[in-house]
Design brief:
The chain contains 14 helices and 12 strands. Helices cover about 40% and strands about 10% of the residues. The chain is globular and about 60 Å long. The relative contact order is 0.16. β5 (about 165-175), α8 (about 185-195) and β6 (about 200-205) form a beta-alpha-beta unit. The strands form 3 sheets. Strands 2-8-7-6-5-3-4 form a 7-stranded mixed beta sheet, sandwiched between helices. It is an alpha/beta fold.
Length: about 400
């Protein structure tokens, strides 16, 4: 094995920091250490029973064979209906692709379209996988800083400045992982006006947290706001977050036939079809009762308000209130330069997160992994009791810094 030469592509890629933090928290728990993990972007709710029953029925009905590589017709029809119902977007089955999760959707789109030197504009803070997938597929990620003073959202001016003749894609994630920031209709309208002037730029809109918005926020996706961008937008979503189906591994997207056809070609030579049982469960998720979404959102909102209030009591932290998702992204700038109980100087947010785990037994993801610090991401997709205890530990840790 010592003679194995790894590819240049894989050597350029960083491992997922969010997965690493979750794995570390689980490892410490197995050792008997009382760690509270706030790293995983995974709802603690269970998959609704009607969805489980649909999966069980599919098993009993023998729907356990290969399916079309990018989704069964019934699921594509449910996705078409969802886009029409929720987003006022009209697609046909041929414009829809289904994959084993959201990551393969993005990866397939990039592999199907990126050539060496093509640029992908990624507003920062960003989900950790966006730039790495662009790199793996031969592209060049172009992070654009969107600070707390901009509510962590891309401005039209910053977008205009980032576009070059090499720009191939813009990624828009709303509500955002890691910040929870969501774009209003007016903000999307302003970005669309810029994009209309640059017809070479395609838009990948990651709407995975669409149903997780609070305080009466009205959700829009960019192709809905500007129909002129419909023919160069890949609108991505999935069942993982809203339907508490992370382990079922179903992501989907809709876009122009040519792009979807190219992605289908990629799928045919890589993953092939997503799990047949998960597909039938997802049909029920999208077509079945949706009332539980609002009920769960009330719980998430209560947790958000708790976490924001308690983190803002911690010395050296400042935590904005986000519009959606189940993350907050507090600044830890006030802790930089201080010394931990273990005698370690907090030089950056990665050291802050490491020392918090070591001395506070709370696992969070450091901001540099998302392209902007000093900050860290907290997932509040866990019990109120755990969040209450975790924020108390964070307060105590911050108070212990000298």
């Amino acid at each position: 094995m010592s003679n194995l030469q790894l590819s240049e592509a894989v050597n350029r890629v960083q491992p997922s920091a969010t997965i690493a933090v979750s794995n570390k928290a689980m490892e410490l728990k197995r050792q008997g250490i009382d760690v509270i993990g706030l790293g995983a972007g995974e709802p603690d709710f269970d998959t609704p029973d009607n969805i489980k029953e649909a999966a069980i029925k599919a098993i009993h009905d023998g729907k356990t064979k290969y399916t079309p590589v990018d989704g069964i017709p019934e699921l594509k029809e449910a996705i078409v209906a969802k886009f029409k119902r929720d987003n006022e977007l009209t697609y046909t089955n041929s414009q829809v692709t289904v994959a084993p999760g959201g990551k393969p959707i993005i990866f397939n789109a990039f592999l199907a379209t990126l050539n060496a030197g093509d640029e992908v504009i990624i507003p920062a803070p960003y989900w950790v996988s966006y730039p790495e997938m662009a790199i793996m597929c031969g592209g060049t990620p172009v992070p654009v800083a969107c600070g707390a003073n901009q509510n962590y959202k891309l401005s039209p001016e910053a977008l205009e400045a980032a576009i070059t003749p090499k720009t191939k894609w813009l990624i828009l994630n709303s509500p955002s992982n890691p910040t929870g920031a969501a774009y209003t209709k007016a903000e999307l309208r302003a970005l669309a006006d810029v994009l209309l002037r640059h017809p070479q730029v395609w838009i990948l809109t990651d709407d995975m947290y669409e149903h997780l918005v609070y305080d009466g926020f009205e959700y829009f996706t960019i192709a809905q706001v500007e129909p002129g961008l419909y023919d160069r937008t890949l609108t991505m979503n999935g069942v993982s977050k809203a339907y508490a189906m992370t382990g079922w591994r179903i992501g989907y997207a809709a876009g122009p036939d040519k792009l979807i056809g190219a992605m289908r070609k990629v799928i045919s030579q890589t993953t092939s079809n997503p799990c047949s049982i998960s597909q039938w469960a997802s049909v029920e998720a999208l077509n079945g009762p949706q009332g539980f979404l609002a009920e769960r959102n009330e719980v998430f909102k209560t947790r958000r308000d708790l976490v924001v209030a308690e983190l803002n009591k911690a010395e050296g932290l400042h935590c904005p209130t986000p519009e959606g998702a189940f993350y907050v992204y507090p600044s830890c700038a006030g802790a930089i330069g201080k010394t931990s109980p273990g005698g370690v100087v907090i030089e950056n947010d990665e050291i802050f997160a490491t020392e918090l785990l070591q001395h506070g037994n709370v696992a969070v993801v450091f901001g540099a992994a998302f392209g902007m610090g000093p900050a860290f991401r907290v997932s509040y997709a866990t019990s109120t009791e755990a969040l209450t205890e975790a924020t108390k530990r964070i307060q105590n840790f911050c108070a212990s810094l000298k």
